[in-house]
Design brief:
heterotrimer, A mainly alpha (342), B alpha/beta (253), C mainly alpha (294), A: 342 residues, mainly alpha, ABC transporter involved in vitamin B12 uptake, BtuC, two-stranded antiparallel ribbon, 12 helices, 75% helix, 2% strand, B: 253 residues, alpha/beta, Rossmann fold, 2 domains, 6-stranded mixed beta sheet, 4-stranded antiparallel beta sheet, 10 strands, 36% helix
C-alpha cells in the first residue's frame, strides 16, 4: 500500500483513539470522583448525602437519555421525564404488587418501555425541529395529568410503601435500604448504561444518527431510512430513561406523578447543557453539578431556581459546549502529546 | 457503438405535475450499461426534477422507472441506493460539520450491510479501505481531517462526487458536477468522469455543452419539461430543433 | 331539548368563548413571535403571570383596574424589548438557533417563575372583580366581567389583525418575516422590528394576565397549563399564522367546553392533545401558513 495511505490510516486511527480515550477519561474520572465521595461518606457514616448522590446518578441516567436525542440525533425532548416516570411507576408496582425482585422489575421495565417508547416515538418523530420539542412536552404533560388523576395509580400521592429489596449480584448481596451498597449498585448501572450507549454511538447505527443531526436530507441517499434510525434512537432513549427511573422507587420507597412533570424533563435538559451536549458523559457531570448546586444554594435560600435559571441562561449564551465540551480539547491535546511520546 | 445489452436504466413516459405545472412531461429514454448518458437543456427544462424522480427524491405522477429489469418507480432514495443507484447534488449537500473522512465513511458504511450494524465503525476495514481509495482518487489527502464546511468550493464539489461513489453504485447520477468549478478543475473532473465510465454507468446533467459533447455516448435534450431530442452527441448537435431551442438560447444568453 | 340548549349547552359555549378569547390572545403573542423570529417562547406563560402580578401590584398600590389594564402592557414592552436584545439576539445567528432560543426562554421561565414566588409568595392571590353583577342573556345570567372580557378580547384581536395587515408597521413586520434580507434592503430596520415584535408578543401575554387575573386568581405557575393550550392552538393553527391562532383558539376552547359536558375535565387536555397530534400527523405545517407567506 502507498506510504501516504498508510500515514493517513495511522493518523485516522490515532485521532479516533485520542477522541475515544478522552471521553473515557472523563468517564473514569467520574467513577473515581464517585468512589472518593463514597469512601468519605462511608467514613463519616452519612446517609443523607449518600441518598442525594444516588438520586443525582439516577437523574443523570435521564439526562443521558436526553443527550442521545439532542446531542446525537438533533432532537430536543422536553418530555423525557415521561419515560423516567413510566419506569419508576412500573418498577414500583412490580416491587410492591408482584415480586420484590430487582431483576423482575428491571426486566419488565425494559420490555414494556420498548413498546411504550415505540408508540410514543411513532407519534413524536412525525414532527421535526421545534415541533418535536413541543410534542414531547405535550405528551409528557398530558400523561402526567392522567396519572395525577388516576386513583388506581394513587392519584396525586403516587405509590407509597414500596418494599426494600435484597438482590444477589454474583459475589455480593445488595440491600436497597443500605445507602452505600445501593449507591454503588446505581453507580455501576448508570455507568454501565453510559458505556453501552457510548459503544452504540460508535457503531454504524450511531454514526447514522450523527449524520441525521448534521444533514438529514442527505441520509436517504446514503442508503439509510432516517425514520427508522430516529425511531430506534427514540426507543433507546426511552429505555435509558425508564431503566434509570426504575431505580428511583428502590431508593426512595415511593413514586409520585411529579416524576413525570416538566420540571424533571427540564432539569435533565439543564444537566445536559451544563455538562456538555453530545458527550454522553457530560450529562452525568451535569447531574452531579446541578444536584450539588441545588443543595448548596438551598442552604442559603429556598429560591435556588432563580440562581439555576440564571446560570442556565448564562451557560447557553457563553458556555454552550458545557463542562466536558470545553475541557475536551485540552485533555485531547494532553493525551495526543502523551501518545506521541510513547 | 451499438449495444445489444438491455439498458441498465430505462425511463418510460415519466411525468410529474405540481398543481397546474407539468415539470416533467412524458419523458422516455434508456441509459446503457457502462455508458455516459447526458441530459441537457436550458434552465427550467426539468433536468433536476427528472433526476429527483429517478433517484426517488420525489414520486412521479405517472410513468415508469426500470432499473436492471426491475420496476423501481416511486421507490424511496434508500431503496434506490440499495438497488445500486446513487446520486450527487447540484447544490452541495454534505455533512458540513463533519470531517471529510467522516463524510466518506458515512457513505461507505452502506457497504458493511446490516450484519455489521453492531461493530464499531473504527474497526470496519471494508469501509476504511473504500474511504482511503476515494480520498486518494479525489486528491483529498490533505483535507481528510478538515470539516467539510471549511473546504473550498472546488474541494466540496469533488467530495460531493466521492460521497456519491462511496457505496460502489452501478449507476451514478451526477447533477452538474462542475457547477461553479474553475477551468482547471472542470477539465480534471471531465477526465475523472471519463475514467469512471465503463465499470459504472453514468447519468449526467451538465451545463457545459462542450464537456457533454466530449464525454457522452448518448445525449438527451430536454425543453420545457419534455424530451426534445436524443441521440449520439454529433447527431443531437446537428438537430435544428435542438439548435433553435437550446444552442440558440445558450448563444444569446 | 330547548331547555338543554338553553341551560346546559349555552352556558358552556359562552364560558368557552370567554376562555377562548383569552387563549387566542396568548396564542397570538406566541405565533407572532414565532412567525417573525422563529423563536418558541417557552417563557410566554411566565410573561402572562408577570402581567397578572404587575396588574395585581398596581391595583394593590391604589390605582384602578382600568389604569392597570393600559399600563401593564406598556410596562411589558420594555421588558420584552430588553429580553430580545440581551438574550435572544446573542444566539440568533447560530445554526441551532431554534433549540438555543428555546433553551434560553426556558431558562428565563425558571428564573421568572421563581422570581415571582420570591416577590409575591407562592400562595394564590385573588384580585377584586373590577366589574360586579351579572346580565341576562337568553334567559341566563352571565357575570358582567366575563362579558367585558370577551368584548375587550375581541377588540384587541381585531386591533392586532388590523395592525399586522393594514398598517405600514405591520407591512414591515410581514416583509421581515418573509425575507429578512430583502426587508433590510428596502430600508426596514430589521433589528428593531425583531425586538419590537417580541415586545409586542410579550405585551399581549401581559394583558391576558391582567384580564384573566380576576377570574382565575394569581399564582406563580398560573401560566404553565394555560400556555400548553396556547401551544396546541399555535401548532394546530399553523406556527406563525394569525388567522390560524384565532380560528384554532376558538374551536379548541369550544371543544374543551362542550366536551366537558360528557367527559371528566381530566380528559379534556388529552382530548385536545390528541387533536393536536392528529393535525400534526396529517398536516405537519398546521392548518394555515405562516406570517408573511401568503
Amino acid at each position: 500500500m502507498a506510504e501516504h495511505l498508510l500515514a493517513l490510516r495511522a493518523a485516522v486511527m490515532r485521532r479516533e483513539r485520542v477522541s475515544h480515550s478522552t471521553l473515557h477519561f472523563f468517564a473514569y474520572a467520574f467513577i473515581a470522583l464517585c468512589l472518593v465521595f463514597a469512601a468519605i461518606a462511608m467514613a463519616t457514616g452519612d446517609v443523607f448525602f449518600f441518598r442525594l448522590a444516588t438520586e443525582a446518578l439516577i437523574f443523570g441516567g435521564l439526562a443521558l437519555a436526553v443527550d442521545i436525542l439532542l446531542g446525537y440525533t438533533g432532537l430536543l425532548s422536553l418530555g423525557q421525564a415521561l419515560f423516567f416516570g413510566y419506569g419508576a411507576y412500573v418498577s414500583g408496582l412490580v416491587l410492591k404488587e408482584i415480586e420484590p425482585s430487582f431483576w423482575t422489575a428491571m426486566g419488565i421495565v425494559l420490555v414494556t418501555a420498548t413498546a411504550f417508547g415505540a408508540i410514543a416515538g411513532i407519534i413524536a418523530i412525525r414532527a421535526r425541529g421545534v415541533y418535536f420539542a413541543l410534542i414531547t412536552f405535550g405528551l409528557a404533560q398530558v400523561v402526567s395529568k392522567i396519572v395525577f388523576n388516576t386513583r388506581e395509580l394513587g392519584a396525586s400521592d403516587g405509590i407509597i410503601g414500596i418494599p426494600v429489596i435484597k438482590t444477589d449480584f454474583l459475589l455480593f448481596q445488595v440491600d436497597t435500604g443500605h445507602a452505600p451498597s445501593f449507591f454503588l449498585l446505581v453507580l455501576s448501572i448508570i455507568v454501565g448504561l453510559y458505556f453501552l450507549v457510548a459503544y452504540v454511538m460508535g457503531t454504524p447505527f450511531g454514526r447514522t444518527l450523527v449524520a441525521i443531526r448534521a444533514n438529514e436530507s442527505r441520509v436517504p441517499f446514503l442508503g439509510f431510512h432516517p425514520w427508522r434510525y430516529k425511531l430506534a434512537a427514540f426507543i433507546l432513549a426511552a429505555n435509558v430513561a425508564a431503566l434509570s427511573g426504575a431505580l428511583y422507587p428502590m431508593l426512595r420507597g415511593f413514586v409520585s406523578p411529579e416524576l413525570m412533570f416538566f420540571q424533571v424533563s427540564g432539569n435533565a435538559v439543564i444537566m445536559v447543557i451544563i455538562g456538555g451536549v453530545g458527550t454522553l458523559i457530560g450529562p452525568l457531570y451535569g447531574a452531579a453539578i446541578l444536584t450539588g448546586l441545588k443543595s448548596v444554594i438551598g442552604t442559603f435560600t429556598e429560591h435556588h431556581l432563580i440562581v439555576i435559571g440564571m446560570l442556565f441562561v448564562l451557560s447557553v449564551i457563553f458556555f454552550p459546549k458545557g463542562l466536558v465540551g470545553h475541557a475536551r480539547p485540552r485533555i485531547e491535546r494532553i493525551l495526543a502529546a502523551r501518545g506521541r511520546e510513547s | 457503438m451499438i449495444s445489444t445489452d438491455p439498458p441498465i436504466l430505462s425511463v418510460r413516459d415519466l411525468s410529474v405535475r405540481f398543481g397546474a405545472l407539468v415539470a416533467v412531461n412524458a419523458v422516455s429514454f434508456d441509459a446503457m450499461r457502462g455508458h455516459i448518458t447526458s441530459v441537457i437543456g436550458p434552465n427550467g427544462a426539468g433536468k433536476s426534477t427528472l433526476f429527483n424522480l429517478i433517484s426517488g427524491a420525489i414520486r412521479p405522477s405517472s410513468g415508469r422507472v426500470v432499473f436492471e429489469g426491475q420496476d423501481v418507480t416511486g421507490a424511496p432514495p434508500y431503496r434506490m441506493l440499495a438497488a445500486g443507484l446513487s446520486r450527487s447534488f447540484q447544490i452541495t449537500n454534505l455533512f458540513f460539520e463533519l470531517s471529510v473522512y467522516e463524510n466518506l465513511r458515512l457513505a461507505a458504511q452502506f457497504l458493511e450491510g446490516a450484519t455489521r450494524a453492531l461493530k464499531p465503525v473504527s474497526r470496519s476495514r471494508l469501509a476504511q479501505e473504500r474511504v482511503e481509495r476515494l480520498i486518494e482518487q479525489f486528491r483529498l489527502q490533505h483535507q481528510a481531517h478538515e470539516l467539510a464546511g471549511y473546504l473550498s468550493h472546488g474541494e466540496q464539489r469533488r467530495l460531493e462526487i466521492a460521497v456519491a461513489l462511496a457505496c460502489r453504485p452501478r449507476v451514478l447520477l451526477l447533477d452538474e458536477p462542475t457547477q461553479g468549478m474553475s477551468h482547471a478543475d472542470t477539465a480534471e473532473t471531465e477526465e475523472m468522469i471519463k475514467s469512471l465510465a465503463g465499470e459504472l454507468s453514468i447519468l449526467l446533467i451538465e451545463h457545459d455543452v462542450d464537456l457533454v459533447m466530449n464525454l457522452s455516448d448518448h445525449v438527451v435534450v430536454m425543453h420545457q419539461g419534455a424530451k426534445l431530442a436524443e441521440g449520439p452527441p454529433a447527431e443531437v448537435r446537428a438537430n435544428p430543433a435542438v439548435q433553435a431551442a437550446y444552442f440558440g438560447d445558450a448563444h444569446h444568453a | 331539548m330547548l331547555d338543554w340548549l338553553q341551560f346546559i349547552l349555552a352556558p358552556q359555549v359562552i364560558n368557552g368563548l370567554s376562555i377562548g378569547v383569552a387563549v387566542v390572545l396568548m396564542a397570538l403573542g406566541l405565533t407572532i413571535i414565532f412567525g417573525l423570529l422563529d423563536v418558541i417562547n417557552m417563557a410566554h406563560g411566565e410573561f402572562y403571570a408577570l402581567g397578572a402580578y404587575l396588574g395585581y401590584a398596581l391595583i394593590a398600590s391604589g390605582v384602578s383596574f382600568w389604569f392597570a389594564l393600559v399600563f401593564v402592557p406598556l410596562l411589558m414592552v420594555p421588558i420584552g424589548y430588553a429580553t430580545e436584545r440581551l438574550l435572544i439576539r446573542r444566539v440568533f445567528h447560530s445554526k441551532e438557533r431554534h433549540i438555543l432560543t428555546l433553551l434560553l426562554t426556558f431558562g428565563l421561565a425558571i428564573l421568572l417563575e421563581d422570581g415571582l414566588k420570591l416577590a409575591f409568595g407562592a400562595n394564590p392571590l385573588k384580585p377584586e372583580q373590577p366589574i360586579s353583577g351579572a346580565s341576562e342573556i337568553i334567559g341566563l345570567y352571565f357575570p358582567n366581567y366575563r362579558l367585558f372580557l370577551m368584548a375587550v378580547g375581541v377588540l384587541i384581536i381585531v386591533a392586532v389583525w388590523l395592525t399586522v395587515y393594514r398598517t405600514s408597521l405591520g407591512a414591515m413586520v410581514r416583509a421581515a418575516a418573509f425575507d429578512r434580507h430583502m426587508a433590510a434592503s428596502l430600508g426596514v430596520r430589521v433589528s428593531h422590528v425583531y425586538a419590537g415584535t417580541f415586545a409586542f408578543g410579550v405585551a399581549l401575554a401581559g394583558i391576558s394576565g391582567v384580564l384573566l387575573a380576576p377570574i382565575y386568581s394569581v399564582f406563580p405557575t398560573m401560566g404553565k397549563d394555560f400556555v400548553l393550550i396556547a401551544f396546541s392552538v399555535v401548532i394546530i393553527g399553523g406556527m406563525g399564522s394569525i388567522k390560524g391562532a384565532v380560528l384554532a383558539g376558538l374551536i379548541l376552547t369550544q371543544i374543551q367546553a362542550v366536551s366537558s359536558l360528557y367527559i371528566s375535565p381530566v380528559w379534556t387536555d388529552p382530548l385536545l392533545f390528541g387533536i393536536m397530534v392528529l393535525v400534526l400527523m396529517v398536516r405537519p405545517q398546521g392548518l394555515f401558513g405562516r406570517l408573511g407567506h401568503g
